[in-house]
Amino acid sequence: MLDTSANTGSPTDSVIHQLITATGTRVPDEVLAPFAAGVDNEQLLKLYQDMVVIRRIDFEATALQRQGQLALWPPMLGQEAAQIGSVRALVAEDFIFPTYRENGVAYCRGANLTGIMSTWRGSANTGWDPHEINMATPQIIIGAQTLHATGYAMGLTMEGKESLAIAYLGDGATSQGDVHEAMVFAASFQAPVIFFCQNNHWAISEPVGLQAHVPLAGRAPGYGIPSLRVDGNDVLAVLAATQWAAARARSGGGPSFIEAVTYRMGPHTTADDPTRYRETSELEEWRGKDPIARVRALLTNNGTLDAGAEAEVAAKADAVAAELRAGCIGMPDPEPMTLFDNVYTGEHAILDRQRDHYSRYLGGFAGAPAGNSSAEGKLS
Amino acid sequence: MIAEFKLPDLGEGLTESEIVSWHVAVGDTVTLNQVLGEVETAKAVVELPSPYAGVVTAITHEPGTMVEVGEVIIAFDVAGPAIGAGERRDRAPGAASGAGEAGGGPIATGAGAEPDAAAAPKRVPTLVGYGADPESSKRPTRRARVFGTAAAVTAGASGARVQGDRPRSTPPVRKLARDLGIELASLVGSGERGLITREDVLAFAGDHANGSGAAVEAPASYTPQGGITDAREVRTPIKGVRKFMAAAMVESAFTAPHVTEFLTIDVTAGMDFLDKLRGLKEFAGLKVTPLTLAAKAVSLAVARHSALNTHWDAANQEVVAYNYLNLGIAAATPRGLLVPNIKDAHELGLRGLAVALGELAETARAGKTPPADLAGGTFSVTNIGVFGIDAGTPILNPGEAGILALGAVRRTPWEYQGEIALRQVMTLSLSFDHRLVDGAQGSRFLADVGAMMADPAMGLVMG
């Protein structure tokens, strides 16, 4: 049984745990240190590469949206450490319940790049097989995934498994009823679930201070859920905090809540204009806390990241961007009739009728495949 | 080969965007994802990254132009056959057709040649609004900065843009201002932290729009080209009176529930009366028409049916009843439709109305109607009969409860004293705001107006 004394989440505790400062200096932290002990420079370099690659994915996808190739894209610029640090602390059996913004998490989980794009292009309902990579489809409904994760975790307990479920959520989601219900159930049933909250400071245009007068991490203890507040732009701190929560879950310690304090540097989605509601000075402040720059500084200073390694990382990012672009542009549009494919798992009379009607409707157009003469009369 | 970039839907269901600026010019070599320029949608100002690496061959829309989604905005000469990066690729080419024609050698060959032909679209964009204009400095200048202290900083590798230097307002108000052709930078906001409100824009429009025309003209940077003309269509920017009137009509039509009633009357006696007036010394040199008669009839009838002379004050949740009549007269002018009104028409006799109507029409047609004449109307009349039209469903002048349309007076077979006779007949069409006017009130009002126009002596009874 793991020592749970790491619970520092009293409502007034606003300490932000950190292992790498914004300027790239390692600092000690009693709570996190045991969970980051195993991370050497080589592993930190891998985390660095992950962050650079997903930032590049984000840049390329944003450009593709502006070029008419994607319907929408939710940028993750600035949140790379929160995504990479958390997902790299998990094992393959753990099940992830993401929001729509965890596209970097999906990439690390092994989701195919073209698949990730297909959802945002409007070509598919999901870009990956949830059972194949143990990651649910992106949840658009704010906070709903916390219930799914809690229920899944309760199921794990019933089946006697040692894996866990992790729900990603944002600061805005903590105002949703679903999230509170999920935390009540998670605590009551001591479900092995991690509530991983990325506090990116803005729920679209609403600042976090309007919704929470205490640190978000301070809410969880009220439900009996230990929590940690960490620098969400510090990939090592996020990794350690997630290890802490995962160790608790795997050892029967029940749910945990992590508040990763980060910042959404881009718009909420490509259909948003953040300059309408926030000051550029705030963006500048957070640019100084960039999650990638601090690791680059640290690894450069300790000699791990030389020109050759940097070139390798850049080459990897370029290759991923090129693959993503080609996959996105080359994606065939789905056949209209596939619209009906994944509504029900089995036969459904009403849907069958609609499918039939739509098929005959499509058949009525000039140049449609032959064999629809019966429909022609009705449509002419 | 030439590759075109069509304006995409940049924000979940938008149909158009405005070109704000171009950062590249024809002849420039650009790289993939290089920022080409900025466009403003109803939601945001965004940068457009280039979908191609190549040389810019055409820029088809100047800054300030509204562009429909799907229109070509820029074209490139790209090395080699372009992947359709600017355009979604169609579904897999029909291999089935080749299979169906198996055995037909020559046809199969032809089909095989198809992809090559298809791979080279020949369309050369029309250089609309683009020419030997060397001043790239003609980009619209940044609008006045209202808040924020840090200078706008261009994003680094992120591609995110930072921009805070435009007047504070909200998207619907920005749209309203754009629809009215008003530059927000020229307004002072009355809201919190200088926020420009809907009221600010409407007040500005009310002060400036109808009068000198100075404010309704879009700023020069927004209308670099006049009408864009080709052989079959003429495209004219929507601005000025046309734009303002359109907005007012849309607002009226979709705010006030309109009801229109028609009444066809025998106005032979009324016409005889007008003839009589023309012979009187007092009316010498004055134009007396059915409109004159209608003006007086309306003036008398609104006194009997006050609901027709009211205003729905949505903001205060009050009905405003007027104890005076400012009678609006719709006038077709060179600048478009205007509805100047005769102030305190209820105090004028028939001669006074004839004088006022003459002056009003002359001023409007000369395009000299002062803004004061356009504001404060309480009821309007439109004379569609002068165009030979019988009836219509007029749209209320915004804020008013009723509008009467006069049809043409025609010699028509009509029942007269138990026989059919050729009589002078016209149709009155009355639209009213059903929030303010009940069907019975509107009907009685219309009947009274009709009675007085049919027999002016009835004015003695109803006046």
TrEMBL record, chain B:
EC number: 2.3.1.-
Stretches assigned to coiled coil: none
Similarity field: Belongs to the 2-oxoacid dehydrogenase family.
Name this protein carries in UniProt: Dihydrolipoamide acetyltransferase component of pyruvate dehydrogenase complex
Keyword Acetylation carried by entry: no
Enzyme class (EC, first level): transferase
Organism placement in taxonomy: Bacteria, Bacillati, Actinomycetota, Actinomycetes, Micrococcales
Region annotation Disordered: where it falls in the sequence: 87-119
Gene Ontology annotations for the cellular component aspect, listed alphabetically: cytoplasm
One Pfam family from the record: E3_binding
Comp. bias intervals (Low complexity): 108-119
Superkingdom: Bacteria
Keyword line: Acyltransferase, Lipoyl, Transferase
Cofactor(s) named in the record: (R)-lipoate
Lipoyl-binding domain mapped to chain residues: 2-77
GO molecular function terms attached to this record: acetyltransferase activity; lipoic acid binding
